């Protein structure tokens, strides 16, 4: 099989000979690393497998493409009509990114509950007493998890370890870990939010989840709660979030993703010390590339045997 690789600098900066040999051992007869547009448009004409990203221009030149492996779990940026309608199978990192996204989610949460963000900004002991008075322990809190896929389960594992109770909603999942109360689909979101001290956004961005976390959802949370989002911007209504922070309904929010990225300096989100923002870095991990290569190698073997692939995305649903 002819494989074309379009590595993204912030995910896969260096493609090593060892990695290329692994791909060849799994069934890739030839691997072309295409970083520039000219090479991509030329190489994709005969490529059967694409590892990386695609756009409409590349798809127009693709004559033999059977399968694309995305270098991310979110695939909303690739779901343009021509690709969705094509017979090309799309697989993603779903099921692989949960641990590091969940780590980041709890990093943001602890920075809020333990006054870490405040202390870093303060750079002194001036407000030590005030910090001690507002610090909160996670034990006994309830985590509401929107989406019980790989990321949601990883968040639940960590929440349970912190002594939190876990609630979850998901449109497709019908069972989960015993320590998670799976309440149903998105129609139960408001009910779940009403019981959640911390609301974790762990779902993909689709037409169904755009501005899913809105003023109605935030207004029913127990007063003083927290919102954490490490998956995709646009799922949280940011105007509603700001209103909830200003009213004191929420004590804080941790965002690794925002509706507009990069987040411009003029965004009002920067104006609130109660909102901790990181620049879409939750997806990084020392294990990430290894997991991607493991999936690609397994799927190369599956493809050669006409077996179902791992991590397949329903292009119409968007996940």
Could you characterize what this model shows?
It is a single chain. This protein is an alpha/beta fold and 319 residues long. It has 2 domains: 114 residues, 3-Layer(aba) Sandwich (Rossmann fold), CATH 3.40.50; 180 residues, 3-Layer(aba) Sandwich (Rossmann fold), CATH 3.40.50. It has 12 helices and 12 strands. A 7-stranded parallel β-sheet has the order 8-7-6-9-10-11-12. A 5-stranded parallel β-sheet has the order 2-1-3-4-5, covered by helices on one side. Helix 10 links the parallel strand 9 and strand 10. Helix 1 runs parallel beside helix 12 and helix 5 crosses helix 8. It is elongated, with a radius of gyration of 21 Å. The mean pLDDT is 97.
CATH architecture of the largest domain: 3-Layer(aba) Sandwich
End-to-end distance: 26 Å
Overall body shape:
elongated
Share of residues in strands: 15-25%
Q: What integer value in Å does the Rg equal?
A: 21 Å
The structural class is alpha/beta
Provide the CATH superfamily of the largest domain: NAD(P)-binding Rossmann-like Domain
Number of discrete domains: 2
Mean pLDDT, as a whole number?
Answer: 97
- Helix content percent band: 25-40%
What is the helix tally?
Answer: 12
Strand order of the largest sheet: 8-7-6-9-10-11-12
Query: What's the number of extended β-strand segments?
Result: 12
CATH topology of the largest domain: Rossmann fold
Low confidence ranges: none
